[in-house]
Design the sequence.
């Protein structure tokens, strides 16, 4: 067994604590070398720094970083990590803009540093089985319904509502990451409509029409769902209908009772990252972020009530 | 001399009449086979149709189309032309979204049909000389000021103000097309701020900060300039300062009197298209549209007064 990769988590907020720490601590392939957060605390017994620069100057060894900050500062941190020769895992979205991501990918390529766009929902329990079921079938229509409560899931995350924070597309991009993984043809945004609170720069609700091959996919994203979560993706094919629910953790075919499996989303994601590191390769797919940018470019905007946590 | 290419203009509005017709009629490489417009009239003596479909069914021969419609319907027309085996020149912007353009480019590639993103400002008189002057120099800063009167230049063009119409980025994308032609490094949008009239879906004024290599470029786009046109791009290098003005038609180095040349923008553009057709090749660059999408994705939005022609 190779010795584990020393990894540092940059941006030690909710997703880092809820998902990255358990996945890293539960993996034989990684050791948590350090955490970095510009304001908040770290973990007992793990070196903690206020900046990546401070970590780099400390002498603490790191092979890789997992960048879990808000997207607005992700690019700058990733560039610094690449310059230091560290492999980079980027929480979704991988950059603030598709253009920023393309520049980052080119930089990592020139530096020979593995870059991983960690679209975590692609590693949800039933996504692989859904993809296998779709093989050889033609998708003729689809529907995404991705609804949750921002107040319940994202209290205090003001960056979501600031320019570049994506608003309801922060969860919604998870659905788009599954969709682009499942469909063989490119996905194109043909219309979009946003509701933007008067005190926010980003949408709190959005609808889109997507096209892929001959299929039209209706998308409904909402951050004001107070009656439980709806994280569903349905595809109608010439050979039956597939429904992924619970964010990809449950799969139902033709209305049969949903099949589930143990949730190993971030464990599988980190196993894939270890595999990339072993091979010195990148897995850097900008497609879901591209769809969001396209939606912003052509959106009909309606004003909405101010949002407060 | 080979016989001229039969070309049809689709979307017979202002840009088609002002620029495409004279360039085609003035070229030995093209013959104007037909015009298409869903509502307006054509030209005396040239077959005119209400749709591309009607043209295709008419028996009038065409080798290529120049698509000059508003961007919102460009993709559908281009797909139809590619399916019919016609080469496609796309007025800027080449598609409604970067994702839509990527799908179009893939379609043209599979069909073996030449596709040309006609960024006309790249063919302005002094852009080539500016690019030659920049060779071997390092750009350390830059500034774009692209200001004109929408009331003077675009009266009645309601599509500019509808979702997908780009607003002030319709002229502004010309500046971005020159910038991306001149700079060797990728250009990344790091911030943007829009003013959006309360009765419009698109900005009437915008500022952006761009980065390319180590250079920072400040961009000022405005559609309410009533004191003449300002179409300027300035680049400061380690070997002097370049100022392109009049949309690329005039060039000044280090403050010297501006040098100009005869305006042959669309004539040169069509000569390039003929060259692509001779070789069966495409020239399909999405970069300027990508910058606009990135700017929309991270824009701070300020409300502005309603706009009326």
Sequence:
């Amino acid at each position: 067994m190779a010795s584990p990769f020393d990894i540092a988590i940059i941006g030690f907020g909710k997703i880092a604590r809820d998902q990255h720490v358990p996945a890293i601590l539960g993996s034989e392939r990684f050791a948590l070398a350090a955490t970095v957060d510009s304001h908040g605390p770290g973990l007992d017994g793990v070196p903690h720094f206020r900046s990546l620069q401070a970590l780099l100057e400390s002498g603490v060894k790191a092979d890789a970083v997992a960048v879990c900050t808000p997207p607005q500062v992700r690019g700058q941190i990733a560039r610094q990590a690449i310059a230091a020769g560290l492999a980079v895992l980027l929480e979704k979205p991988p950059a603030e803009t598709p253009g920023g991501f393309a520049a980052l990918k080119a930089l990592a390529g020139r530096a020979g540093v593995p870059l991983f766009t960690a679209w975590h929902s692609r590693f949800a329990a039933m996504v692989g089985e859904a993809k296998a079921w779709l093989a050889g079938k033609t998708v003729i229509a689809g529907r995404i319904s991705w609804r949750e409560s921002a107040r319940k899931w994202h209290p205090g995350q003001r960056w979501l509502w600031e320019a570049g924070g994506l608003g309801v597309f922060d969860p919604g991009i998870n659905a788009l990451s599954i969709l682009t993984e499942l469909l063989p043809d490119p996905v194109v945004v043909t219309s979009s409509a946003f509701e933007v609170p008067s005190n926010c720069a980003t949408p709190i609700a959005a609808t889109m029409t997507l096209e892929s091959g001959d299929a039209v996919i209706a998308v409904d994203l909402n951050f004001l769902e107070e009656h439980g979560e709806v994280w569903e993706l349905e595809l109608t094919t010439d050979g039956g209908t597939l429904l992924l629910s619970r964010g990809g953790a449950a799969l139902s075919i033709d209305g049969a009772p949903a099949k589930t499996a143990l949730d190993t989303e971030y464990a599988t994601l980190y196993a894939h990252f270890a595999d990339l590191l072993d091979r010195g390769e990148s897995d850097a797919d900008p497609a879901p972020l591209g769809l969001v940018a396209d939606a912003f470019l052509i959106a009909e905007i309606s004003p909405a009530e101010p949002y407060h946590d």
